Amino acid sequence: MQTLPIYEFRRLALGLMPAGRAIRHAASARKSSRGGACLASIFAVACLMLSGCSPEAREARYLASGKKMMEKKDYTRALIQFNNAARVMPKDAEPHYQLALVYIARRDFRSAYSSLNKAVRLNSKHREAQLKLAELLAATPEKENVEQAQQKVQELLSTGENSAELLDILAVTEYRLGNLQDAEKHLQQAIAKFPKDLASAIGLAQVKKAQNDLAGAEDVLKKIAAQQPPSANAFLAVGRFYLSAGKPADAEAQFRRATEVDPKNGVALLSLAVLQARTGKADLAEQSYARLSALPEPQFRLYHASFLSARGKHTQAIAEAETLNRRYSDDRAVRSFLAQEYVRTQRSADAEKLLTAALARNSKDFEALLQRGAVYLVLGRNDDAEKDLTRALQFRRDSAEAHFVMAKLHQARHASANQRSELNEALRLRPDYLAPRIELAGTFIGSGSPQLALDLMNAREAQPYRNNLAFLVQRNWALLALKQYDEARKEVDRGLAVVRSPDLLLQDAYLKLGQKDYSAARASLTEALNRSPEDLRVLRLMVASYTSQKQPDGAARMLQEYARQHPKSAPVQHLLAEVLLATGRRAEARAALLAAKTADSRFTRADLTLAQLDAAEGHVGEAASTLSTILARNPQNVTAWLMLAGIDDLRGNRVAAIEGYKKILETEPANLPALNNLAYDLSETRDQQDEALKYAQKAAELAPETPSVEDTLGWVLYRKGLYGVAVPHLEKAADKDPTALHKCHLAMAYFKMGEQGLGEKNLAVAVKLNPNLPEIRAARQVMDEMKGGR
Question: Are 332 and 367 in contact (CB under 8 A)?
């Protein structure tokens, strides 16, 4: 039997009230909350008048403050206040109950369960804690927990208490245990005793729907919607039923009736706007979102601006957010949205200015530190980003978001191990946090461990996101990497039936290419490009579709035509240059790179490729000048530093090259090319060979199977005279990547070991591959020395 989502019966009502509160729960919480707002205010005044506060007064003040934070959805500060209340009154159950409500809002159900258990232990008569504990247990997948919840509710009922809420939870447990008839009976009992209880009616409709009694479910909801006075929440319930039944027009009519009954019902307006957007009525949706954002509740302020942004109306979205930011200067959500819009529209300097001003007012503003750190990452200012993120984590070590952004910093520095560590920490703190789960799965796929990625996406905590597009796409990449093509095909088709996204179309084309259905693959790729014209992944796969058929000229022609159609796209022009370079058409590639620069004068990738092209053609001076210009613009561009150090190597300026590689490692200690090249350069100087070995071993730890790394480690050991230890590394490098250099190094090690035949054999291969390689002369000298020594 299909189970209902968490709190399905009663929680359906949660979404029907502003601020996400249950209809009954809001009232009962006001009646039952120990140390309520009125009492808290009296205690607060007393504390001001007296030289000291009693523990009860301090608790009341903390509870009142925590509840205010909860209303603002500032859960971190709410936790602090409720923990303070628990500390001053350790034997009172109420702070622990309030802590549980915060944990539930954060979807940290394990911590909520612990807090509720403590509340009940401290006060077994705390009704709300008992109810919430039963509700939590009823929502878990374990049968024994559901049975325990059922027992708790029955115990409460046995005391004579008989409320709709109790009967609803009892019905949930019965439903979860497969007793649909009992669930229906108790829900009908609740409706009979409490005829205006909407949650019970929704629960009964859900049970009837689960029994395929759609007419009965509809009838239950219609009856409660027909009651007087009319209830917006009842119309909402009917609308949601019609929506689930695939009747969007009927659902929209009900949502409209809800807004007519209560024009200030935020959830009704939101439901209407979302449905209008989904059914292609964007202009009507925009009007509904505007009405929604005009409501006084803070949680609705940004909906209209967010919708404008989603429609590509970024100028209007920014203007509205700027107005909101001036009006509500203390609303961090508004400021965060505005900063994100600035970054999205290449106005990172404005984002930095906005956040720096906030930090000038409050240097401990966690959100501003976190966001400015993210902005610095976009700007490539990794050192500045690290300062802000480190400071943010000093204030909130338990922030999953801060650990996630820190992972982004490590990703920018190519520190994969640190990146994974931070992503794992983010998930440990928030198992339901989707973004780090997707990123971590991506690192596993990229490092050749797709099974780990699939396990991560198949984890129980991830299942609520199974229909999320980003989740679906990443899981599909894991399936494709594992060559589980049948399941991937099924999942891609499932996604495409809902939305023709560029990511899914790309995966569709990938599968079709695997079946050599080139025309169908290109059709999918063309559709993806129509939806996302500058998606280089799509263009690269389109190129691959031609090269798979051994038509490199066809790929170049396709890209040239596409570049002509998109002359202002620097990424497209740059990709054309890469393809032309791969086919040896350097002059045309240079023209494409200059076109990229014309499209965007600050497009750094075009500068880097131009420098690479100049260096390959022997124009090292021009290449060095281009790289220096990049570094003047952004001193933290590691790729430019790496290329500049490589040019110093080409020029024979080993001292400058070593200095450059060390500079890179100051910022990125795990930068593999810098470690490898530095080790190689240091090995050429006798008194620096121990230092060279240290860097070579670090590189080998990071990439133990990389041929160039194995060759460098072997060469450093050779230079130290450790020929027997060097040979296995050099053999592995030459076997995996038999270049002239690798063969030459292996030949010299064989000569030193007295393996004359093997040495000559490998040297002959090196000469055949590249007779002009400088190291060949050195290898011949070693060969002659060893012959002379025999």
Answer: yes
Nearest CA to 274 among 243, 230, 301? 243
The closest of 74, 108, 109, 111 to 96, measured between CA atoms, is 111
Predicted TM-score (pTM) of the model is 0.64
d(CA 608, CA 616): 12
Task: Round to whole Å and give the CA distance between 418 and 343.
Answer: 26
**In this structure, which long-range contacts are made by residues 336-344, counting pairs with CB atoms below 8 Å and at least 24 apart in sequence?**
336/367, 336/371, 337/302, 337/305, 337/306, 339/371, 339/375, 340/371, 341/305, 341/309, 341/314, 341/317, 342/318, 343/374, 343/375, 343/378, 344/309, 344/314
Q: What's the one-letter identity of residue 718?
A: Y
The answer to whether the peptide bond before residue 771 is cis (omega within 30 degrees of 0) is: no
pLDDT tens, position by position, 277-333: 989 899 999 999 999 999 998 889 999 999 999 888 999 999 999 999 999 988 889
The conformational region for residue 328 under phi > 0 = left, psi -120 to 50 = alpha, else beta, is: beta
Q: What is the pLDDT of residues 108-135, one digit of tens each?
A: 888 888 999 899 899 988 888 888 888 8
Rounded distance between C-alpha atoms, residue 226 and residue 246, angstroms = 22
At residue 83, the pLDDT reads: 92
Q: Tell me the C-alpha to C-alpha distance, in Å, between residue 382 and each of 257, 410, 466, 602, 635.
A: 53, 9, 34, 19, 10
Q: Report which DSSP code applies to 51.
A: S
- The set of residues, in sequence order, having a beta carbon less than 8 Å from that of 295 and lying 6+ positions away, is 18, 264, 266, 269
Question: Is 221 buried (19+), middle (13-18) or exposed (0-12) by CB count in 10 A?
Answer: buried
Determine the Cα–Cα distance for residues 204 and 171; give it in Å rounded to an integer: 9
Residue 172 has pLDDT above 60, yes or no: yes
Which distant-in-sequence residues (6+ apart) come within 8 Å of 124 by Cβ?
130
Q: What is the per-residue pLDDT across 645-693, written as a single tens digit (0 to 9) for each?
A: 999 988 889 999 999 999 999 888 888 999 999 999 999 887 899 999 9
40 contacts: CB under 8 Å, gap ≥ 6: 60, 61, 63, 64
Of the candidates 101, 89, 105, 87, the one whose C-alpha atom is nearest the C-alpha of residue 129 is: 101
More confident residue, 15 or 141: 141
Look up residue 287 and give its DSSP letter: H
Q: Which of residues 192 and 675 earns the better pLDDT score?
A: 675
Residue ranges of alpha helices (H) inside 262-310 are: 266-278, 282-293, 303-310
Single-letter amino acid, residue 51: S
SS3 for 649-718 is: HHHCCHHHHHHHHHHHHHHCCCCHHHHHHHHHHHHCCHHHHHHHHHHHHHHHHHCCCCHHHHHHHHHHHH
Count each helix (H run) and each strand (E run) in the chain, helices first.
46, 0
Between 75 and 627, residue with greater pLDDT: 627
Q: Which residue has the higher pLDDT, 1 or 591?
A: 591
- Tell me how far CA of residue 660 lies from CA of 205, 569, 653, 713, in angstroms: 70, 33, 11, 20
Q: Which of 6-15, 453-462, 601-610 has the lowest mean pLDDT?
A: 6-15
* Residue 332: burial class (beta carbons within 10 Å; 0-12, 13-18, 19+): middle
- Please name which of 527, 528, 557 lies closest in space to residue 543, comparing C-alpha atoms: 557
Residues 397-411: tens digit of each pLDDT: 999 999 999 999 999
Which of 370, 419, 421, 413 lies closest to 391, judged by CA?
370
Q: What is the mean pLDDT of residues 419-445?
A: 95
In terms of C-beta density within 10 A (0-12 exposed, 13-18 middle, 19 or more buried), how is residue 161 classed? exposed
| 74-104 pLDDT tens trace | 888 899 999 999 999 999 999 999 998 998 8
Amino acid (one-letter) located at 316: Q
